[in-house]
Here is the input.
Amino acid sequence: MTQRRSAGRTARQPTALPTQLDSYVLHSWDWSETSLIVELLTRERGRLTVVARGAKRPTSQLRSVLLPFQRIHVQLARAGAAEAADIHLLRTAEWQGGGPVLPPAALFQGFYVNELLMKLLPRHDAHSVLFEAYRLTLPALAHGDELLAQAGLRAFELVLLRDMGVLPDFTRSTLTQAAVLPAETYVLRAEAGLARATGEEPALPGQRWLDLHHALTGDSLRQLQEACVPVLQLLKPQLRHLIHHQLGSQRLRTREVMQSVQRLMDTSVPGARAVAADRPLPDPQVHSP
Here is the structure.
């Protein structure tokens, strides 16, 4: 009996994980009259779900801290053998300060990024590079420049898909393994990876794919954002198709809401789309993620 208990403790020790975490709130919803369920993105442990007991009470310190897009430092209750539990108990949360505040016009873009993480990123799978990409994407959305915001979204999608292991090598045609030629055009397909363009698909010149590959293999998200700027209109539908393929039957609620809002605006204000089309923006759907 003693030997078995000792062996059990020894076997669990390597799985012990830190309980103090660098985090962002992705989403929260009511759990009881006084408590919340909160989805976190953490640097050390990836995506986690926690219970914030008493967070809805007027006197709770957590009320003003558990907000989306704000960097916080959280401490979890020690779970012992249940380190990989689906839901953890939140002990404390402290605001780290210094983060950008998203303006109302950028909130849907921010919630779109959060929804991608919640639906595509498995729990308990740490992605420190993706955490850093998220941190650096928020200023791009908060800046107020639509060109920078769209570039930030495309760059984040690329990093997310790469870290998921579903983004092909942009230097070679996926099926033939032939080197990508700068003067040829290529298209990104969910089922076949990067392939030579054959029709009126939203294809990019090979040189643009090589530029994206170079930026992806570097350590500067800003460089990747800059590489996305010249190809925003053509890159967006290709990444959207790949993301939808990974989502399967899941649907992005943020995109559906924004499409509904856009339809309502077009109906309420005749000519609004024509006016928007005259603006010098890289993407005709300027308010859509």
The domain at 7-100 is CATH 2.40.50.140 (OB fold (Dihydrolipoamide Acetyltransferase, E2P)). The two ends are 58 Å apart (CA to CA). The first strand starts at residue 20 and ends at 30.
